[in-house]
Every structure is written in C-alpha cells, then in structure tokens.
Specification:
This protein is of the alpha/beta class. Helix 1 crosses helix 5 and helix 2 crosses helix 5.
Length: 159
C-alpha cells in the first residue's frame, strides 16, 4: 500500500518541484521509496512542460537535490489519485479548494508549513521575484516541512 503526495505552488517551477525533490530524498534515504508516490504541480499552466527555475535548480543542487520534474498544472483527477495535496501558500490552497469543489476525490488538503517543526512561518514564500537568499530560505522551510511530513506519514497507524 502506498501513500501519494502532490506538492502544489502557482507555477510549479520553484517551490513545489523543490518540495517534491526534497521529499523524494527523505523517502529514499529512509529506504521507503516503494511506499510513496510523489509529484508536484501548479495551479496555473503557464510554465507547463518547463524545468524548474534555473536559480532554484542551482540552489537546490548545492544542497544535493536534483530538480528533474517538468511543470504541469493540477488536474481534477489529482484529487482522486493523491492522498495528500500540499499547498505552499494560502492563495494556492484556496485555488485547490475551489477546484476540489468541482472534482471528487479523497485527497486531504493542507499547507506545507503546518508540517514545519522549527520554523514559524505559515506559508512558503514565492522566491521568483526576490533575490538569491529567498531560494535558500525556501529550501530551509521545505527541508523542515518535509521532515515533519515524513514523520507524520510514517508514524505507526498513519499513511
């Protein structure tokens, strides 16, 4: 039995592909890759088919993460396919809730930062229009939240 997780931001070129790569890393290092289906998507399709932002890829690579996914837009069937759909911020969560109202499915919606154990932010900020430090801050938040999410999903009686 596998647990499926979809990470979602607006364009699927910074935050959500980073969360996907970090969570895949955590799962693989724990020897549980076969127990999870992990993907990412955006609430808009503007960047569909594109690789992650080069600045995000470079920052992630310095920490050992390979952002290899291609951007795609959230689809109604994602609410049936995934157990957990994790939004990076309130705006994307609202978009997901609106889409879920028109789709059927089992997916639980949540905000990424609710899984943080060491950071107090409520949202993962979009680093796209900021400077280089914003990309590092996003990775700090995502590493913390991915650790917390993994802990929650692998706790006895969970997943």
């Amino acid at each position: 039995m596998s647990t499926s997780v979809l990470f979602v931001c607006m364009g699927n070129i910074c935050r959500s592909p980073s969360a996907e790569a970090i969570f895949k890393d955590r799962v693989a290092k724990a020897g549980r890759a076969g127990q999870f289906v992990i993907d990412s998507a955006g609430t808009i399709g503007y960047h569909q088919g594109s690789r992650a932002d080069p600045r995000m890829r470079e920052t992630a690579a310095r920490r050992g993460y390979n952002l290899e996914s291609r951007a795609r837009q959230v689809r109604p069937e994602d609410f049936q396919k995934f157990d957990h759909i994790i939004a990076m911020d309130e705006a994307n969560l609202a978009d997901l809730e609106s889409l879920r109202a028109r789709a059927s499915g089992k997916a639980c919606l949540a905000l990424m930062c609710q899984y943080c154990r060491h950071h107090g932010e409520r949202e993962v900020p979009d680093p796209y229009y900021g400077g280089a430090s914003g990309f590092d801050h996003v990775l700090d938040l995502l590493e913390d939240a991915c650790d917390g999410l993994f802990e929650v999903l692998t706790a006895p009686g969970k997943a």
